[in-house]
């Protein structure tokens, strides 16, 4: 088996592993292996094959990192994410505030409510902005 075939077998192995993981990074390394194989078929030395394959693999990976498929997603605080907690955005009624805390009834239970930083402690309709433990973080409804 010549060097070019070895490079292609490795490339297809990485491609199969990529199909199992779905990250696209192994695909970029696989592209580098194909370039290493092409270098082998064109008569390049083993050192040139390794350099060409590594350079293309690293370059492709760096390019991937700059695309939307390679961007690492930042994990937002789940306590303020409406996709995680469906109660965020709902309205509760506050009758009175006492030392920055109110007791409200929501979904048939008694909850403690605190104000969002910078909000005024006004009685009336309040929008749930976050949930921290068993405490609702609210702000006055517009």
How is the largest sheet built, in terms of strand order?
Answer: 1-4-5-3-2
Residue share in helix: 25-40%
Backbone structural class: alpha+beta
How would you characterize the largest beta sheet?
5 strands, mixed
Q: Per the principal axes of the C-alpha atoms, what is the gross shape?
A: rod-shaped
Terminal-residue CA separation:
74 Å
List segments where confidence is low: pLDDT < 50 over at least 5 consecutive residues. Answer: none
Q: What is the mean predicted local confidence, pLDDT?
A: 89
Radius of gyration computed on alpha carbons: 28 Å
Q: How many domains would you count in the coordinates?
A: 2
Number of helices: 3
Fold and architecture overview:
The protein has about 140 residues and is α+β, with helices and mostly antiparallel strands. The protein has 2 domains: about 60 residues, no CATH class; about 60 residues, Nucleic acid-binding proteins (OB fold (Dihydrolipoamide Acetyltransferase, E2P)), CATH 2.40.50. About 40% of the residues lie in helices and about 25% in strands. It has 3 helices and 5 strands; from the N terminus they run αααβββββ. The chain has a 5-stranded mixed beta sheet with strand order 1-4-5-3-2, with no helix packed on it. β2 and β3 form a beta hairpin. It is rod-shaped and about 85 Å long. The termini are far apart.
